[in-house]
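Re: the request from the purification team.
They wanted to know what the chain is likely to look like in 3D before they choose a buffer screen. I agreed to run a prediction and write the result into the notebook, where they can find it.
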Amino acid sequence: MTSTTHVLYLHGFRSSPLSAKAQLMAQWLALHHPCVYWACPQLPVSPLEAAEVIQDILSGWPSRSSTVIGSSLGGFYATWAAAQHGCAAVLLNPAVHPARDLLGYLGVHPCWHDPSQQIEVTQAHIEEMKDLYVGQGLGCLSETDRSSARPLADPERLLAVIAKGDELLDWREMHARYAWAQTHVLEASDHGISDFSQHLHVLSDFLFEQDD
């Protein structure tokens, strides 16, 4: 794996570039790897529009030395991005079946970091989500959807950080989905990985200490 020169961070559902993990990661990179290019865009609620934002950024980056870091729903997007662009990805408590899980969130919701701002999840967004599934673990999709999904390549270029204490997503489902990739299982923690600073060394090893 080539040492990382570009990092794209993708936040989770209802989150933003102000997320604690995104801020901590940006500060850590600025301190220890100041030459690494960093991007952390605000993602639209529409999966199709979010994919376009991700595509626009990655299309100008070197695929073999770029890494996408995604948290929760951002982890789902990062998995798709890695398959599309041949880049590496770090998946932090990644959403495995968002098209299924977000059915319970149809409607209007406040944003975490600015409750005065709202997003609306629609059935059309659920359908858009299905187009971004890749690889194995597609149990919530129809046979037709599964047959058209893109297979994942280079599983050794994926690292999944999975917390058994995740209160929103089933860690066993995450582990099964990414069993063929590199995994780092946290015995406790939570969905937001509130002890993220204690695990930065795992990301550092993956991003910078596996050079060819």
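For the purification team: Helices lie at 20-32, 47-58, 73-85, 98-101, 123-130, 143-148, 171-177, 200-208.
Please add any questions underneath this entry.
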